[in-house]
Amino acid sequence: xxxxxxxxxxxxxxxxxxxxxxxxxxxxxxxxxxxxxxxxxxxxxxxxxxxxxxxxxxxxxxxxxxxxxxxxxxxxxx
Length: 78
Known about the structure:
Largest sheet: none
Helix content: 55-70%
Number of domains: 1
Radius of gyration: 14 Å
Oligomer: single chain
Structural class: mainly alpha
Shape: globular
Low-confidence stretches: none
Mean pLDDT: 84
């Protein structure tokens, strides 16, 4: 969901390609984890992208520190 939500902010071809490749690997990881946890590996036909602020809020318990430049970048995104 993070990659789906962030892809709209990427305008460089190489970065866009890398993001798309990472997203497909992450999708396979998620489907496998769903399968071994007894859930449907493909619970819906489409994924909803998450806003950067939503991803940061969900990840914040696991973040020990963050460079100021990254924090500033997230602050500029809707």
